[in-house]
Amino acid sequence: MSEQEIKVPDLGGAEDVEVIELLVSVGDTVEAEDPILTIETDKASVELPSPGAGKITSLSVEVGDKLNDGDVVGMIEASNGSESGESDSSDAEAEEPEEKEPKNETDSESEPEAEESKPAARKKSAATRKETVLVPSLDGMEDVPVIEINVAEGDTLEVEAPLVTVESDKASMEIPSPYAGKVDKVLVAEGDKLSEGDKILEMTVTEEDGDEDDEQDEGSAESSQESTSAPETDSGKQKDKTEEPAPQPQGATYEPPSPGTKVHAGPAVRKLARELGADLTRIKGSGPKSRILKDDVQSYIKSQLQQSQQGGSVGTGSGIPGVKLPDFSQFGEVRREPMSRMMSVTAVNMQRSWLNVPHVTQFEDADITDMEAFRQSQKAAGEKKGVKITPLPFILKACAAALAELPQFNVSLDMERKEVVRKQYIHIGIAVDTPNGLMVPVIRDVDQKGLWELAEESAELAQKARDRQLKPAEMQGACFTITSLGGIGGTAFTPIVNTPEVAILGVSKASMQPVWDGSEFQPRLMLPLSLSYDHRAVNGADAARFTALLGQLLGDIRTLLL
Ligand code: COA
């Protein structure tokens, strides 16, 4: 037994390549060429293979470390018979992958046999040859555009690793690698049109004596045969699958995660899984030696989506079926235009809030007859100051007082940590209708500001919003929002809480109403208030208290001074 360094191979000129995943731990037993870790450049992710079979005795890198050619990432203690791997690794072409049996539970029975055959394996040498991979039969299609290149120069590939994705008007399909080996040169680019027989890439193919038998044992003889015939496309595979008497259901790719499970997947598949947020330990590989293929990842994601659409356990309302659009042109002429960024962002935020927050709306009418008289009395003073005073600053002030009195409205919920975040400041957002969509600038420390200051600041921020001059910081940090449609009209509405806030006040148009004073009806100016709140944070009684308090404060604005 001897210890051997696990070194970073030639990175094809790439430097400071980041470790994105450690695939083994100290104490793990690995086979030669088993992936030790994954590194990623801006072009590709590559697995660093073990130089031989044995036990990992040390690992000197962590995720995020930067590696260069020849860096030592750990040590491996060679197991019996693995010296061949060692000597192979000192060979100039030692980086070429040697197909090995992945070590897992189901393999254990055949292990003694494998051990016995080691002397034979010792004689094996990783012969290499150059091959040009050609486009296989495309079921009669020609000039099919390449929509994705799945590999980069320098990538080490397994048989069946997807090379490029092509898309006709009928289907997209991946062209898999017919060989294991290293990509020398990619000969196509996105957008190129391919037909059968066109060149895709040049490879240095690794070929090991005796390995073909192994592959055949795994039922993947076709893919491992040394052959110049073009590979089978995924469309072909799909066709085969549909001919099977009992096709595998989509959900069959789902398996509960088993900690410590070794994942066998190529760099392109790992990258795809990362992009889609798929946990590879949950996916059953359908490739040779249970390798996870791109198809498996896609099927897994599809099955998860189907589950959630059928009201599965995925949270936040994503189980809601989508809205199917009819062909509107059958009813008359239509014109389609892209959503503005602001519109699409608002749409996502609204939906997120609506789906996440159990909304309840509490209504109240505030008698603002006296407040309005006072406001009118201040108009001349306002003109002198150059400030227009509308009902809004009074409402801001009343809300600040109500938030101080009922602090359960001045919170956010951290459901992940099961915590209530209590804010010790009172910043209030005001919804502003602009030609570009809804914007919500924030007035800070409303409780510490006077009516004139609030009138000036709200008018200034509303103007900035309309002029698209708001800075991001001016739209952040609100504890509560006021959305006032009073200048426009309406008697009541149910605003959507601006999460992570827990309440929002909708203000409708004040109107003169006959109000019974105990002996007769009096004409009073009544302001309709609609308080929507997150029922997880606020209970109904507190919401009624909040709107009743607003009614009192706006009914007698002297109380705002108390
Ligand atoms: N009842 C009756 N009149 C009202 C009122 C109310 N609740 N609120 C405002 N007004 C009056 C104002 O006093 C003013 O009249 P005046 O010129 O005679 O004094 C007029 O309506 C226009 O006021 P406005 O310019 O809208 O000022 P504001 O301070 O009330 O509101 C904004 C400022 C930014 C909130 C407002 O312009 C706005 O954009 N509102 C729309 C918000 C929105 O789109 N919400 C929906 C979110 S989904």
Which features does this protein show?
single chain; 562 residues; alpha+beta; OB fold (Dihydrolipoamide Acetyltransferase, E2P); Dihydrolipoamide Transferase; 4 domains; seven-stranded mixed sheet; four-stranded antiparallel sheet; 14 helices; elongated; binds coenzyme A
Distance between the termini: 85 Å
Q: Spell out the CATH superfamily of the largest domain.
A: Chloramphenicol acetyltransferase-like domain
**What sort of overall outline do the alpha carbons produce when their principal axes are compared?**
elongated
Helix content: 25-40%
Poorly predicted ranges? 81-125, 209-260, 311-317
* Oligomer status: single chain
Helix segment tally: 14
Rg over CA atoms: 34 Å
> What is the mean pLDDT?
80
Q: Structural class, please?
A: alpha+beta
The proportion of strand residues reads 25-35%
What small molecules accompany the polymer chains?
coenzyme A
The count of DSSP E runs of length 2 or more, i.e. the number of strands, is: 27
Q: Could you describe the largest sheet, including whether it forms a barrel?
A: 7 strands, mixed
Report the CATH C-level class of the largest domain.
Alpha Beta
